[in-house]
């Protein structure tokens, strides 16, 4: 073991030295970022030589990055990928709606009563029939009810909240957006990462195409002056990451008196330890309508029980809980494989795997920003076109990485948790968990980057018993819940980690849904404390 470790250290040392000489310090010192307009824990200069510089350059120089304008041509705005062979199987998923007097589900988009322009945009987006979360979610939102919705990754949650909001705004004839020193949006949508909120904004912009509703997006890492100018041009739907949103409200550029909708996408993440204070600050902002006077909507594929209880603070008492399928369950269109490895063989196994997948688009998840850089550089040196995304990369680089991955120019994307949730990228055939996350919900979100919208995907996870044993039990449950093969060795690890009594890995999993029913999701497992956000646990990942 010791010999192995020394080899590993030597290997790392020379590799680091080589990389430093080839790539210069840029690889290790991620640089200035996010200083402007934040002055908060998650902003500022967070970098490779942590400790050394940390704090010293916190505010950094002014962020000048202005993202390229979104596409203007209709063909790009409405470009979409095809639904997969399992799209129709969504109809077989069991749906549980709880709460008083839930409105009846719709079966078609025609029944949604969308106004003509919105209906046209839905068709141009390639949507023929609604997914279950849309069938149930749209009428619930249209009826003015608060909603906590849970549906598997890639099953259309974004449109489930955007369509009824846009419909209401159009039906009520919101004032066409025009320049004003203070903007009063009707809806605010929050999400945990910059790339995700930008994606939601582009979806909102697509569905609002040709109407007078104007969505705007604000997030960290881009020039604040530019952001403010965009907002002041007119803003009906404000999409933002929490820091930038609070900043822009704090500057008095956004008033909340007309706010009708507050949407928390990836709601469990928005309410866990990392973001909860920001969310409380947001709902406590001057002018924010009370929960009785606004509609609050929450969406995610996972809802730990304690987070669900806390979420009730933000919702009206009679909110509706909608569960499509298994709460916290993995998407069954993803074929999951768990491979037992030791730490030192991971790199070679990854290489072998990627060589066998050819040019298929693959996301490789690692636990820390540093390993993201290491692994990406390693793969590049092995002649695999690879890019990386993590919180220490500048926003310009993050967006470039994502775009290179989307276009297939770099078919391999090495990512930290920052890319685990929500991102909807065409043709991601594989997800590799080079490092398994510490929380099972994070695992569910990561593997959900593939197998979207009825398409088939594959996820391979490296399980190192030395570090991953605490995840074994939940992993067995998620695998069996998604009708996947559970390796015997994993069952044994889960069994011995748990002790000998009462553990039935194939037992009733995720039994109940709505915490108001008093049940626990996982019948034979005590409720877990909300896991510290993977971000916080892992190398202070920077999320927004
Ligand atoms: N009714 C539909 N018909 C065809 N395609 C759809 C439909 N609804 C959504 N889609 C497409 O399915 C893909 C996944 O949708 P979306 O990103 O909203 O999933 P999600 O449930 O929010 O996933 P995640 O949990 O990962 O955030 C998107 O490309 C979206 O445009």
From TrEMBL:
Residue ranges, compositional bias (Low complexity): 526-537
Domain DEAD-box RNA helicase Q positions: 107-135
Enzyme Commission designation: 3.6.4.13
Domain Helicase ATP-binding: 138-321
UniProt cross-references to Gene3D superfamilies, sorted A to Z: P-loop containing nucleotide triphosphate hydrolases
SUPFAM superfamilies: P-loop containing nucleoside triphosphate hydrolases
Keyword Hydrolase: yes
Catalysed reaction equations from the record: ATP + H2O = ADP + phosphate + H(+)
Disordered: annotated span: 506-544
Pfam families: DEAD, Helicase_C
Helicase C-terminal domain mapped to chain residues: 346-494
GO function term, MF aspect, one: ATP binding
InterPro entries with a match to the protein in the record: DEAD/DEAH_box_helicase_dom (IPR011545), Helicase_ATP-bd (IPR014001), Helicase_C-like (IPR001650), P-loop_NTPase (IPR027417), RNA-helicase_DEAD-box_CS (IPR000629), RNA_helicase_DEAD_Q_motif (IPR014014)
Family assignment from sequence similarity: Belongs to the DEAD box helicase family. DDX4/VASA subfamily.
Name of the protein: RNA helicase
Species the sequence originates in: Sinocyclocheilus rhinocerous
Name of the gene: LOC107715859
């Amino acid at each position: 073991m010791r010999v192995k470790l020394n080899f590993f250290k030597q290997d790392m040392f020379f590799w680091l030295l080589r990389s430093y000489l080839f790539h210069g310090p840029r690889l290790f010192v991620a640089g200035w970022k996010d200083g402007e307009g934040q002055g908060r824990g998650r902003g500022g200069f967070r970098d490779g030589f942590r400790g050394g510089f940390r704090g010293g350059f916190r505010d950094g120089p002014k962020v000048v990055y202005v993202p390229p304008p979104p596409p203007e041509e209709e063909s790009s705005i409405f470009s979409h990928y095809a639904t997969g062979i399992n799209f129709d199987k969504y109809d077989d998923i069991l749906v549980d709606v709880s709460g008083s007097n839930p409105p009846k589900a719709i079966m078609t988009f025609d029944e949604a009563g969308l106004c003509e322009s919105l209906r046209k945009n839905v068709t141009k987006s390639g949507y023929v029939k609604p997914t279950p979360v849309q069938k149930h979610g749209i009428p619930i939102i249209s009826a003015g009810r608060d909603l906590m919705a849970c549906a598997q990754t890639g099953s259309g949650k974004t449109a489930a909240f955007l369509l009824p909001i846009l419909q209401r705004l159009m039906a009520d004839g919101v004032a066409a957006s025009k320049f004003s020193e203070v903007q009063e949006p009707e809806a605010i949508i929050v999400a945990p990462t910059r790339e995700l909120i930008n994606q939601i904004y582009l979806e909102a912009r697509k569905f609002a195409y040709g109407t007078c509703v104007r969505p705007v997006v604000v997030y960290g890492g881009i020039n604040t002056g530019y952001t403010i100018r965009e907002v002041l041009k007119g803003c009906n739907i404000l999409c933002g990451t929490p820091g930038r949103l609070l900043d822009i409200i704090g500057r008095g550029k956004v008033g909340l008196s007309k706010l009708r909708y507050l949407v928390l996408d990836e709601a469990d993440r928005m309410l866990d330890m990392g973001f909860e204070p920001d969310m409380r600050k947001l709902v406590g902002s001057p002018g924010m309508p009370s929960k009785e006077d606004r509609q609050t909507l929450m969406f995610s594929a996972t809802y730990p029980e304690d987070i669900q209880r806390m979420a009730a603070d933000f919702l009206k008492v009679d909110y509706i809980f909608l569960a499509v399928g298994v709460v916290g369950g993995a998407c069954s269109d993803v074929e999951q494989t768990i491979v037992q490895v030791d730490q030192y063989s991971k790199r070679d196994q990854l290489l072998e795997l990627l060589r066998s997948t050819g040019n298929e688009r693959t996301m490789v998840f690692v636990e820390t920003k540093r390993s993201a850089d290491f692994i990406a550089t390693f793969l590049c040196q092995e002649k695999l076109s690879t890019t990386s995304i993590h919180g220490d990369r500048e926003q310009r680089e993050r967006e470039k990485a994502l775009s290179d991955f989307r276009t297939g120019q770099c078919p391999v994307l090495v990512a930290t948790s920052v890319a685990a949730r929500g991102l909807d990228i065409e043709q991601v055939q594989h997800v590799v968990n080079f490092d398994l996350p510490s929380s099972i919900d994070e695992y569910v979100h990561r593997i959900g980057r593939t197998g979207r919208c009825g398409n088939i995907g594959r996820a391979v996870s490296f399980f190192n018993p030395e570090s991953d044993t605490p995840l074994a039990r939940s992993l067995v449950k998620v695998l069996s819940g998604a009708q996947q093969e559970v390796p015997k060795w994993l069952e044994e690890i889960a069994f011995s980690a748990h002790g000998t009594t009462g553990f039935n890995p194939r037992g009733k999993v995720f039994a109940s849904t709505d915490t108001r029913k008093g049940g626990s999701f996982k019948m034979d497992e005590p409720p877990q404390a909300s896991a510290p956000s993977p971000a916080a646990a892992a190398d202070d990942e920077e999320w927004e």
